[in-house]
Amino acid sequence: MPSGSRDNNLEKSRHPSSPQWTLLGCGALGGVFASLLTLSDQPTRVLLRDRHRATLHPGIDFTSLEGYTQLLAIERGFVSQPGKIKRLLVMTKANQVVPALTPLVGILATDTPIVLLHNGMGIAEQVVQLFPHNPVIAGVTSHGAMQGGHFVFRHTGKGETWLGPVNDAAKAHAYLAEDLASALGQAGWDEQILTRQWQKLAINCAINPLTALYKLKNGDLAGPRFADVLQQVCVEVADVMQAEGQATSSDELLRRVMMVVELTADNYSSMYQDMDLGRETEIEAITGFLLARAAKHGIAVPVNQGLYQAIKEKS
Predict the structure, then answer these.
(1) 23 or 49: whose pLDDT is higher?
(2) Is residue 86 flagged as an active site residue?
(3) Residue 9 pLDDT > 90, yes or no?
(4) 315 CB contacts (<8 Å, ≥6 apart)?
């Protein structure tokens, strides 16, 4: 299909041998993941809040990395009547995870795995408290996504996705990474997912506040203007990580940050998009989490503290 063209036929994929994915949250990344799962012939539906019942639900308008546009029919459900959930993929913003899951307490079967894919940290522990018997799985992803309108999504960057167990019950569900890999091109299982979460947190602490405050694309951070502040952010995060028992160095974190800056040069960070649209940001789960852990260890993190305060004042 030529770039920019549209398939006028609604496409709905079904693969009876694979349990259905239920995605809670259909923002930019949720819409892209729902589309990619559908295109890989995995049964997929999105679970929406009840206030969306009165909203027009067109097909998902999905534009791939290559610029191909397709209209996809994806099943929808509502939180008040969730139906049978076999595997739950939570794609909301970090600050929305617990409120979005709370209506499912006492309804979700205890053997249903809950996969969390959001920025920041400190949320998974709250989910385990809500669902003490369910397998809870943490994930990190570096895929890029943008939402261009009502159920209009664009895949803006291909990245890595990693899942890992938060509790013992989750350790039997490594196969979920294999199913995601068939849709995303890469996904892996890592028993030490906490390390990957900290590495992602470091990247988010560096890129998200700066791009949001200065209204920049990620690639704009590559110049000399931001070299010092990026280095200082990484020094502070490395200090906290080491206190948390995570072996790392500021040089390693900075290298990871600059690699992401280069690979996502034309992307706008999620925090930039949230602030631009007047939405609540994930600053509490990102820099706020770092500040809390730093305070616990008595570590000064003035640069991150300043970025946190600036985002709070502008939000």
Answers:
(1) 23
(2) no
(3) no
(4) 275, 280, 281, 283
